[in-house]
Write a structure and sequence with these properties.
By secondary structure, the chain is α+β, with helices and mostly antiparallel strands. 13% of the residues lie in helices and 25% in strands. The two termini are 51 Å apart.
Amino acid sequence: AGPPSPSSGPRSTPAPGSRPPSGGRCSPRPSPATASRPGRAPRPGLLGCPKPSPASSSPAVLACSSFVLPSITVVTWNVGTAMPPNDVTSLLHLNTGETNDADMIAIGLQEVNSKINKRLKDALFTDQWSELFMDVLSPFHFILVSTVRMQGVILLVFAKYYHLPFLQDIQTDCTRTGLGGYWGNKGGVSVRLSIFGHMVCFLNCHLPAHLEKAEQRKEDFATILHMQQFEGHAASGILDHDLVFWFGDLNFRIESLDIRFVKYAIDSNILSQLWEKDQLNIAKSTWPVLSGFQEGPLNFPPTFKFDVGTNKYDSSAKKRKPAWTDRILWKIKSPGVGLGAGGRRPSRGVLSVSQLCYCSHMEYTVSDHKPVAAIFAVQFASKADKPPVEIYVADEWSRPEQAVVRYKMAAGFHRSSWDWIGLYRVGFRHPKDYVSYVWARGDDGERSVSGLQVIFSEEALPKGKGEYILGYYSNTSSSIAGVTEPFQISLPRSEEGSSPTDSSGSSSEEEDDSTLVLLAPKSRSPSPGKMKRHRSRSPSLAKFQGLILRPSSRDRGTSRSPSPQSRHGLPGDVPTIHLPQEELGRRGAKAKEPGRAADSQEGSSFYQTVQEQGVHWCLSADNPLARADPRNLGLLPALRLEMIDQAMGRRRESVDQGYPGWRMSPTSPPGCSSSPKEGSSP
C-alpha cells in the first residue's frame, strides 16, 4: 500500500486559538480532584469567528476582524541565589481550569546563582531554574520559544505548541548597567517577537537597590531603553513595539513612612495608605521615561524583604523596610507613534490589554523576595491568519511507508537550505528537542499534488506507540514555522536479541553496565558515574563492555602527577596494546613521507603486543592490525586498553616485581619472548 492521499484525513497545521477571558481576579488553586490535568491539547477556536464548515478544504483558514489571545502570564522572581523549589505549578497558574489556561508565559528571574563554578556548569548544561520550568510546563504543551541570560538575570518565554508558527521575528538583547555598564549583575534582558503580526517585547530588569537610589534607577532604565536595538524596521527600539511588558526586581521603595507604620498597614490590610508613598507610583506621574506605562492595583503585601524560609519580614539587624520591589507593568504604543514608510503602521490594527490578575505568592520561601505573577488578556484588531508553512500528514503511521510529509510554503516565506522538519513527541520542551528530523526540500524538491514532500526513513522512526507532532523549523527565523496536530505512530518494536550487532535492540540496562572513559594526563574530568548519559554527543565511539581508555605508561611517564600509580604498570594479566617509543618519534616524518615509511627497513620493526591469559602474541608490521594507529581513530595518543574489573583489582606490590612473558621494555626485540600455552586462544 502506498502513502495516504491528502483526502484521507490528513493532520494539518492547527488554526490559532483563543478562549474568552474569565474573571478579573486570581482563582484559588483547585483541589486535586478538580484541577485540570495535562493531556492532549484540544484544537482551539477563535473568539467571535465562525467555525469552519465541515465541507471546507483542509487546512481551514479562518478570517476574523477581532482576535483575543486570552491569557499571557508574566512572572517575576528574585530568587536570591537559591536552589529551585520542587514545584512551581501554583506560581504559573497551571491548575486553574481550562477556561483560564495560559497561551503564553514569560518568566523573569533575578539573582540566579552566577558564581564562576555555576556559570561554567550552566554554560555546558541548562541551568537548574530553566530545567525546572521546562519540566513543569512541557506536560501542559508549553514550548520554550526563547531565552536570554545576563549573569544572574534570566528571561524565559514559553507558548503553546500550536501558537509557534505565529510567533516570528524572535530576537533577544541585554544591557549591563552594574559598575558603570561593565558588570551584568544589574541591567535588563529582553525577548521581542511578532505575535500574530503584532510586535511585542518582554523586558526583565534588575535595577539598583536602596531607598536613596531612585534617580539611579531612572537613569539605568533610560539607558536600557536607549541601548537595546533590534534588527528590522517594524520595531527597532523597545518602545517601538506595539506592546511592552516591563517587569523584574525594579527595587522601588516606600518613602517617608516609618517601618512601624508600614508593618501596621500591612497587618491591618490598609495597603492603599502605602501606595501614594511608593516611589514607582510617584515616578509614573513625574518621569517622562515612564509615560504610558500602566500597572494594576497593589492589592498584595510588599514582596521584600523576608527572612528566608519564612513569611516574616526582615528581623535582622538591618531591619529593611518592606517594599513592593517586584513589579509588572505594560505599555501600549500610542496611535501614530513609530509610523513606518508612507505614514503607515508596521503592525496591523490597534490592540487593548486587560489585566485579569496581579498577585504575589507567599507560599514560596526559598528567597527573601516573594514571586509576583500577572495574567493579561490581549485583544488584537487583526491577526496573521495563515502560518508560514502548512504541513499535511496522515492520522496514523502504522507502517514505515506511511511516513510521508507534505507541506506548502506561504508566499513570501524566506526558506533556507538549512531548514528541517522535526518529529517531536507530544510534550517536547523546545524546538531542538526532536526525536528525528529530515532536511526540508526547496523548490527543486520532490513535488506532489499538495506541494512539496519528504519521507522519513524507517531507521529514523520511533518504535512502539505514541503521539507525535511534526514541526517545520526555519533556520532564518530560528523558530518553528509550521506544526501539525498530534497524530499516532504505531510501529512494531524490533525483537530483542535478533542480532548481536543490532544496537537498536540494546536496553538501557545494558548501557548502564558499560563504561567509557577518555582521560588525558592530569585530566580534571568528572567521574563517568556522575556524568549524564543523555548529554553525550559522541555517537561515533563504539560501546565496549567494561572498557577503559587511558594514556599508555610511556605518556604517563611525562606526567607531573604525584600519584605513584602513574609510574607503575598494572598487573601483567591486563590486555595491553603498546607502540614502541621509536615508532612514536617517527610519526611526523611518516606523515610527511608516507611512501618512504612503507619501504623503510626500520619501519618494519613496528609491532604490537597483545597479551591475554598468559599468552604473548606478536603481530608483524605486515599485519593490518599492527599498522593501525589509534590516533587515526580520533582517540587520544598512545592509548592503553584495560578491563575495569582488572584495572581496579590487583595492583603490583613492588615496582621491581617482574612478570615473565608479560612485560616488554622499549628495547625488547620484536620476537616473542614466550610461546603460547596449549589449548589457549588469543
